[in-house]
Amino acid sequence: MARSSSTSSTNAAASSVPPTYEAALAELEQLVGQMESGALPLEQLLNSYQRGAELLKFCRGRLQAVEEQVKLLEDGQLKSWDAE
């Protein structure tokens, strides 16, 4: 039973919100690398997948917030980043 409580503590710490988009992206890249290595046990692989989904949701939310700010700055029009 001690193992499950330590796993719960680890999961609680891992599910914290990253301080920045960059920190979330770095953690996500690290998780992907570990998962792709094929060396993770099944339970840890599942936990990593769940954490990755949380990080991806966080990153998408931050990007959407920035996009909305750009729209405001550009007078309601989202302009293309392509050079004209």
Keywords summarizing the entry:
mainly alpha; single chain; 0% strand; 84 residues
Provide a descriptive summary of the structure in words.
The structure is a single chain. 74% of the residues lie in helices and 0% in strands. By secondary structure, it is mainly alpha-helical. The protein starts with a helix and ends in an 11-residue tail after the last helix. Residues 1-10 have low confidence and may be disordered.
How are the SSEs ordered, and which strands pair?
Layout: H1 2-14, H2 21-37, H3 42-73
Order of helices and strands: HHH
Q: Tell me the distance between the termini.
A: 63 Å
Average predicted local confidence, pLDDT: 82
Assess the beta-strand content as a share of residues. under 5%
Radius of gyration: 18 Å
* Large-scale geometry: elongated
Describe, in short, the structure shown.
By secondary structure, the chain is mainly α.
